[in-house]
Amino acid sequence: MLKVIKLTGLCWAVALVSMTSSATLVFQSGSTSSQKQPVDATADVSISGTTVTVTLTDNLADPVSVGSVLNGIQLDISGAKGASNLSADNAKTVTIDKNKVATTGTANGQTIASNYGLSGYSAITLSALSTGPNYLIIGPGPYSNSKGSIAGNGPHNPFINGSETFSFSLAGASSFSESDVTGVTFLFGTSCWQTSPGVTTYAAVPEPSTVIAAMLLLLPLGLGSAHILRKHKVC
223 CB contacts (<8 Å, ≥6 apart)? Predict the structure, then answer.
């Protein structure tokens, strides 16, 4: 009887975590682009109904050239027939002068969104290169090794400092889910779209609130089991 009570409580907790866990997918770029440039980027992707939210982060510290800087991403989404309504969060920016001195600033989301383009059908491309070569997402400094494609390069400055979150709407169905994402390609550089191979998908992680809720659900069941165990304790 005790085993049944414990198993039932565990099953309820697992069901709760399964139903309410975070569905965000985390993708990691390869370490080298197709142009043999060192790269390191991640993308967090979540979908709610027809809205896709993507957070792009460039993790490569002190990049030497703009060929290592993240300009966007391509998402292959099954059932999609185009995308629209691109928006972006306010961003921290960094401008790197010819002496490799970095000056930070900010840019509002409307400015960021207007400098990015959204194109494609089932393969949706989100990239700064659709409009111009600035506002690419650059990794952390100090930029002491940066060459002329970064330091003092007017067309390429300013950069988005570290990370940026975008949202857009999908056409083609009334609702999509993370399972519809069938492929991810990271895009780097400005002279061409330098793609990064070796993409890895990581499993979704339950939200902290979900874990706490599951623990609270188990608590009375555990106490009840402990009470029964004490009551029927055999020396």
Answer: none
